Amino acid sequence: MRIVAADTGGAVLDESFQPVGLIATVAVLVEKPYKTSKRFLVKYADPYNYDLSGRQAIRDEIELAIELAREVSPDVIHLDSTLGGIEVRKLDESTIDALQISDRGKEIWKELSKDLQPLAKKFWEETGIEIIAIGKSSVPVRIAEIYAGIFSVKWALDNVKEKGGLLVGLPRYMEVEIKKDKIIGKSLDPREGGLYGEVKTEVPQGIKWELYPNPLVRRFMVFEITSKS
User: Fold this and answer.
1) What is the mean pLDDT of residues 162-174?
2) Single GO molecular-function term (predicted)?
3) Among 177, 179, 181, residue whose Cα is nearest residue 221
4) Are residues 122 and 200 in the same domain?
5) Mean of the pLDDT values across residues 33-54?
6) Is 109 in a helix, a strand, or coil?
7) Are strands 130-133 and 76-79 parallel, antiparallel or unpaired?
8) Annotated binding residue 92
């Protein structure tokens, strides 16, 4: 099975380790043996002007997933929204009311579905490809999450000279390593079977970086980078 999945992750943190805004949405194509992706698209947000309610992330994820799916023709699209695997094209108001999610979640999805349900239905009519809201249980969604962390680090590399220093909160249970010409991200969860990702990049001179646990939130690592110049 060939699966396109999308997720948003990586956050700029303030000095108190509180999230300012999310950085990267990534859509990935995942194929057997389902450990990584060789084909992906990324969309960077402005983390300093970001809607943390979830609306922006969901909208960005479905749009980017459809963009990649039109290029690679997968069997299905997985979204990082835990709605029991329901098809997004079926998310009308009565269906959303019946979902076992919070009232706030229902409010957000009722608002989003006005645009996203017709979008998903039109895409399905054109391609036969379903977009399902499967959430964190999906391995391809997890791989997309790892790539979102990698691209958040890439964003930090690209912006550290301007900012002087940055704190980036990585997605759960993952670490990153910067090599000569690439960033490698790996799952820290031994139950996930060695999921990983890597992205080519230019590493600027005169930087210092370190990785350490977020002192406020277990299972999450912080990537701190500073420019020596």
Assistant:
1) 96
2) exonuclease activity
3) 177
4) no
5) 96
6) helix
7) parallel
8) no
Strand partners, 198: 184
The number of angstroms, rounded, from the C-alpha of 134 to the middle of its chain's C-alpha atoms is 14
Is residue 229's pLDDT more than 80?
A: no
| Domain span at 82 | 2-133
What's the residue count for the chain?
A: 229
- The reply to whether 61 sits in an annotated binding site is yes
Q: How far is the C-alpha of 84 from the C-alpha of 58, rounded, in Å?
A: 16
Instruction: Give the Cβ contact number of residue 15 at 10 Å.
Output: 7
Handedness of CA 12, 57, 194, 218 (dihedral sign): positive
Whether residue 128 lies inside any domain: the answer is yes
Is a pLDDT exceeding 90 seen at residue 105?
no
Rounded to the nearest integer, the mean pLDDT of the chain is: 95
CA–CA gap between residue 30 and residue 145 (Å, rounded): 12
pLDDT at 83 over 80: yes
Return the structure tokens found at 165: 């220093």
**Is 75 annotated in some ligand binding site?**
no
> Is the predicted pLDDT of residue 210 greater than 80, yes or no?
yes
Residue 215 belongs to some domain of the structure:
yes
